[in-house]
């Protein structure tokens, strides 16, 4: 088993409803440690860069508008197999398909307003962490 770090966002639909602590409780219950965390508001340019992989998708404009609509909480999570484990803790992208007890099943409003982001690979985790945190902000 490998000790990994993954990048997480608590999305605007969740911060707006004061669910930061409730999301963090599920993260910690799963054995992941929050080793960095800050509340920020994304600029449009930051959101477009972050979700650049989806720029040709029909939902891209809506996704960027949503991600800049309210503050978000960005985090670094550390633990055994953290990348895959956090994807499990989040649940499926569409909350209708998410398993019981997952963040998206518990809290997501729709496939777009789905409360959480988690990196989909170790490589992307490293890229995404570097976009938002400097090394001395992460304390493992
Ligand atoms: P994320 O990147 O945010 O962790 O989500 P994911 O991997 O589960 O899903 P992905 O396919 O990467 O999609 C990124 C985000 O775009 C929004 N989305 N909206 N309206 C739609 O059909 C649609 N599909 C995706 C969601 O906010 C999704 O998390
Ligand atoms: Mg994704």
UniProtKB/TrEMBL annotation:
Its EC number is 2.7.4.6. Major role in the synthesis of nucleoside triphosphates other than ATP. The ATP gamma phosphate is transferred to the NDP beta phosphate via a ping-pong mechanism, using a phosphorylated active-site intermediate. It comes from the Bacteria. It is found in: Cytoplasm. Signal peptide: none annotated. It holds the Pfam family NDK. It comes from Ancylobacter polymorphus. Homotetramer. Residues 3-140 form the Nucleoside diphosphate kinase-like domain. SUPFAM superfamilies: Nucleoside diphosphate kinase, NDK. GO terms for molecular function: ATP binding; metal ion binding; nucleoside diphosphate kinase activity. InterPro entries: NDK-like_dom (IPR034907), NDK-like_dom_sf (IPR036850), Nucleoside_diP_kinase (IPR001564), Nucleoside_diP_kinase_AS (IPR023005). It catalyses: a 2'-deoxyribonucleoside 5'-diphosphate + ATP = a 2'-deoxyribonucleoside 5'-triphosphate + ADP; a ribonucleoside 5'-diphosphate + ATP = a ribonucleoside 5'-triphosphate + ADP. ATP binds at residues 11, 59, 87, 93, 104, 114. Its cofactor is Mg(2+). Belongs to the NDK family. Its main location: cytoplasm. The active site is at 117 (pros-phosphohistidine intermediate). This is Nucleoside diphosphate kinase. GO terms for cellular component: cytoplasm. One of its GO terms (biological process) is GTP biosynthetic process. Keywords: ATP-binding, Cytoplasm, Kinase, Magnesium, Metal-binding, Nucleotide metabolism, Nucleotide-binding, Phosphoprotein, Transferase.
